[in-house]
Amino acid sequence: MSFAPVHPSAPQPHPATARPWIAPQPAPRPAGLEDWSAIQAYVEQILAALAAEGYELTVEHDAQAWVELMRGAPQISSITPSYDPAHSIVDPSNLFWLRVARDGRDLACCVSRLYHVQDLAQLIRSYRLWYDKRPTLVVRMLTMAAGEGLELLRGRLGLIGGLWVHPEVRGGNMARWLTRLAMGLSVRHFDIDWAFCHVKEATARSGMATRGYGFRHVEPNIEGYYPPFGRDQDFWLGYSSRDEVIRTLAAGLRR
């Protein structure tokens, strides 16, 4: 099964080669004062918007607390093992999560985890993206689409996910705010080169990963068997460079 990438058009590879066309990419530049200003301005804007509706946003670092929140959350289909200390090596040096509450009730959350990556495809094929606490004894070979993201994403990567919004407050801006905040804070706190995510095919095709979550690029990635689910489910890769994260936040500021 194959799909057309959902990002700006690019020359198509010659049928005789399996490598996709890769746009020239400059080396990631260090974030500067203007970048910090854009991140902080966006943080303050969202904090004000949340406070106006009676919400309180906190930054947490206890991964087990996130797991417990998700276990008790309504309408949750799975808990991402990448952020679960039962399956992954996570601590405050590589993970934080955002909690939104009102009147003592948890209503939304989103997680960022830092990876140091030289080969994203190998990280996925080895299952270490989800289960790096110990080797996985029995693995099924994964089918992955050839995409630009697997070639481009190197260095310090922030996996944005673990997103949940209570059914009572869905349909608004909560998911949009939290994913963008998680990306911006990952640039500032983890000094990431790229932010990335895995989303279901339907989410990618709907435009939610780009227009909603704020990723600049989205393309097919895992086709067929998806280890965290233990069954077939096509997943797409969303990603933004550090500069693209900053531009997305700057574009979201009120003028």
CATH topology: Aminopeptidase
Neighbour order of strands in the largest sheet = 1-2-3-5-6-10-7-4
CATH-assigned homologous superfamily: Gcn5-related N-acetyltransferase (GNAT)
The CATH class turns out to be Alpha Beta
Q: What profile does the largest beta sheet have?
A: 8 strands, mixed
The CATH architecture can be given as 3-Layer(aba) Sandwich
**Average pLDDT across residues?**
88
Q: Can you tell me the number of structural domains?
A: 1
Would you give an account of this structure?
This protein has a single domain (33-251), classed as Gcn5-related N-acetyltransferase (GNAT) (Aminopeptidase, 3-Layer(aba) Sandwich). The longest helix has 20 residues, at 33-52. The strands form two sheets. The chain has an eight-stranded mixed sheet with strand order 1-2-3-5-6-10-7-4, with helices on both faces. Strands 8-9 form a two-stranded antiparallel ribbon. Helices cover 31% and strands 25% of the residues. The protein has eight helices and ten strands. The chain has 255 residues and is of the alpha+beta class.
